[in-house]
Amino acid sequence: MSAVYKDDQEDWLTVCLKYLLFVFNFLFWVGGAAVLGVGVWTLVEKSDYLSLLASSTFAVSAYILILAGSLVVVTGFLGCCAVIREHRSCLSTYFFFLLIIFLIELVAGVLAYVYYQRLSEELKQHLNHTMTENYAQPGKESITLAVDRLQQDFKCCGSNNSHDWMQSVYITSQQADGRVVPDSCCKTITHRCGKRDHPSNIYKVEGGCITKLEQFLADHLLVIGAVGIGVACLQICGMVFTCCLYKRIKMDPY
């Protein structure tokens, strides 16, 4: 009688573990969609700004999240098959994929956090040089578009202030045609509106574009780090459930 009760109890525990894994898979898919969405949003929505950064760490973090989110779709399906079929080999493969994705998302989260710590210094060292040396220069069209969008989106002018443009290659050349700042600094853009740098005509923001871009990137890095590490922690639960179910399932007959 006790043996029958013990078998029933073990069956009940196995069923509970299976349901827990199904619930985890649902949460896993939701988390994966969030990871994929954040990665795609970061690259598509703000891709212009990436050309202004000295390092590719920001973009790499986003690409890693896209990779991890894509793997989640395949892994979630594999997890459901493993639970339904109750095969140890499927569970082992599922656990392996969970571990790989866990490490990928952890790397993305750590990269985002590390880059967040040195973001301010990198922008101070490189943004002004990038804007003044490369704006409106041959072969630098992507940077020119990025600077124009940056100044219009954040309503700023120059890396620290509008006077930064006075030393730029573009303003000191004949191409500027008498402008003292690019036209994208103007509150209302018209042809050659950059010839007048009065506060009523151009944006005068304390801290310049560096402050605005730094805050924007810092907010995005926090989202990337939080999503990556958050979903990675969720996967720890999935790996624990998988190990428990693996121990309770009998060896495959083949």
Report on the architecture of this protein.
- This protein is 70% helix and 0% strand.
- It is mainly alpha-helical.
- Helix 1 (2-45) packs antiparallel against helix 3.
Structural class: mainly alpha
Strand content: under 5%
Roughly what percent helix? Answer: over 70%
Alpha-carbon distance between the termini?
A: 31 Å
Radius of gyration: 27 Å
Biggest sheet: strands, sense, closure? none
Work out the helix count. Answer: 6
pLDDT under 50 segments (min length 5)? 1-9
Query: Shape, please?
Result: rod-shaped
Order of helices and strands: HHHHHH
Number of strands: 0
What's the pLDDT, averaged over the residues?
A: 80
Observed structural traits:
mainly alpha
Q: What's this, in brief?
A:
The chain is mostly helical and about 250 residues long.
Summarize the topology.
Layout: H1 2-45, H2 47-50, H3 57-85, H4 88-134, H5 141-153, H6 208-248
Helix pairs in contact: 1-3, 1-6, 3-4, 3-6, 4-6
Keywords: Membrane, Transmembrane, Transmembrane helix
Main location: membrane
Family: Belongs to the tetraspanin (TM4SF) family.
